[in-house]
Amino acid sequence: MHVTDRPIVGIFGAGKVGTALARLLVGSGYDVFISGSPRQTALDLLVSIVAPGAKVATPEELVAASDVIIVAVPFGKAATVPWESFDDRIVVDAMNYWPPVDGHIAAVDADERSTSEINAARNPRARVVKSFNHVGYHEMEDDSMDAGSPLRRAMAVVGDDPEARAVVAQLIDDIGFDAVDGGPLANGRALEPGHPAFGRELSATELTRLIEPVAHLAA
Ligand SMILES: NC(=O)c1ccc[n+]([C@@H]2O[C@H](COP(=O)([O-])OP(=O)(O)OC[C@H]3O[C@@H](n4cnc5c(N)ncnc54)[C@H](OP(=O)(O)O)[C@@H]3O)[C@@H](O)[C@H]2O)c1
């Protein structure tokens, strides 16, 4: 699938990150579908209040409708989204492995890959990128600025599919951040908790400098 027009975005997870991104994307003119946890009973009401304009969808409806799928569920619950149906979709892994929430997962602790490489292996036909994970949900709206603003903050996108990176870079720009193309998915380690780019307010130049050393390690 080649995404040439404004993509339709589907978001798995109607929590802090999912609803913040839904608000920003709807506000930027995107059609947004959102799918919540089976435990969320009044999701239509919740979304109509916290992310008006986003459409609640079943997982199947979301996948069928969306060009870009953002996964914003707890990392420990990543397996509960239907990766097997993500063939050809651009999939944005916004998740972080966060032991206070996810518990310690021995296999992940022992794995040297970025957590997005681990997730990408769930479906090699999905066009997985990593983004949105290194900015706090509350900062996504607080720090959103118009293009050209001198203090505009940067957000990175990494992934092995250049067109997928470009599509998500446009999303990042549209929601109010300078997009940094960080190269292959393996570079995503630089964006994860415990690394200097994580959670910091950085310009595009500063963020690029923090991703480059990891790129050399991965080369
Ligand atoms: N909080 C931040 O500032 C921040 C920033 C960047 C990235 N992240 C990452 O983004 C992810 C989401 O964080 P969050 O803070 O938004 O968490 P959150 O507020 O707990 O929201 C996550 C939501 O996803 C739901 N969920 C679980 N499995 C699902 C599924 N299969 N389909 C649809 N929804 C599902 C959860 O429901 P249940 O409670 O029923 O499981 C919960 O409502 C995490 O991986 C986190 O590390 C967080």
Q: In terms of topology, how is this protein built?
A:
Layout: E1 9-12, H1 16-27, E2 32-35, H2 43-50, E3 55-56, H3 59-65, E4 68-71, E5 90-93, H4 99-102, H5 106-109, H6 115-120, E6 127-131, H7 137-142, E7 154-159, H8 162-174, E8 178-181, H9 204-218
Parallel strand pairs: 1-2, 1-4, 2-3, 4-5, 5-6, 7-8
Antiparallel strand pairs: 6-7
The structure holds NADP nicotinamide-adenine-dinucleotide phosphate.
NADP nicotinamide-adenine-dinucleotide phosphate is lined by residues 12-18, 35-37, 39, 72-75, 77, 80-81, 94-96, 98, 133, 136-137.
Please describe what this structure looks like:
It contains nine helices and eight strands. The mean pLDDT is 95. An eight-stranded mixed β-sheet has the order 3-2-1-4-5-6-7-8, with helices on both faces. By secondary structure, it is of the alpha/beta class. The chain has helices at residues 16-27, 43-50, 59-65, 99-102, 106-109, 115-120, 137-142, 162-174, 204-218, and strands spanning 9-12, 32-35, 55-56, 68-71, 90-93, 127-131, 154-159, 178-181. Helices cover 34% and strands 15% of the residues. The two termini are 28 Å apart. It has one domain: NAD(P)-binding Rossmann-like Domain (Rossmann fold), CATH 3.40.50. Bound molecules: NADP nicotinamide-adenine-dinucleotide phosphate (NAP). Residues 12-18, 35-37, 39, 72-75, 77, 80-81, 94-96, 98, 133, 136-137 line the site of NADP nicotinamide-adenine-dinucleotide phosphate.
